[in-house]
Amino acid sequence: MSKYKLFLLRHGEGAWNKENRFCSWVDQKLSEDGVKEAQDCGRLLKEQGYKFDLVFTSILSRSIQTAWLVLEAMGQEWVPVVKSWRLNERHYGSLIGLNRAEMALQHGEEKVKLWRRSYDITPPQIDESHPYFLEIYNDRRYTTCDVPQENLPRAESLKEVLDRLLPYWDSTVVPEIRKGRTVLISAHGNSCRALLKHLEGISDEDIASVTLPTGIPVLLELDENLRPVKPRQLLGDQAKIQAAIKKVEDQGKAKPST
What we know:
His_Pase_superF_clade-1; 6-stranded mixed beta sheet; PG/BPGM_mutase_AS; phosphoglycerate mutase activity; EC 5.4.2.4
């Protein structure tokens, strides 16, 4: 029997998603298409009669902006939004800002796929010479967060994303779900994949093939032990969802620059 409903949402398309660049912890707003994706998502959820009691986001603008647009489209702007860096996208280290297709040309598609999709392989760490280092680590959202700055990651595998996400999930999100509240987590491709791995018991190998397109809500129906009682549901037009999944998977394929 389903006791709880949990919704996961990868934010709408961001400016660097559009440019096929590793965005990670660099703060980006939604693209025009991303705004539309978030609004369409909210309208879909409203049409299907869903109501949220609480929304959790990362501290990156594209995640927060998506949550706001979804709630606005649903007519539920009053619903509280709680933010934490622990829901941030995976930290891609020195790959931040680089084009995925160009990296595939340079290093090979398999290497880029390992960096993007594997469970326990960490990309090269960011250092102080990186063009986006200061933009990230001088940002007040990280100088005031709940861990010392020197303990913030410089690069992460998906496993390390799950390691920093789980304490927040257990201490902050789970108690709200157990109160019977319907929760939306508006986050990122990898923070949502990490949580899916945990909840669904996906193997280290199989998580590499789990793809979440931008702006598509994922419904999980959970039992009293917060285990899924049926397969996850990606809500919306299924043909469009499959096309969006393929688009994400193709991002790491080598394409000569024009």
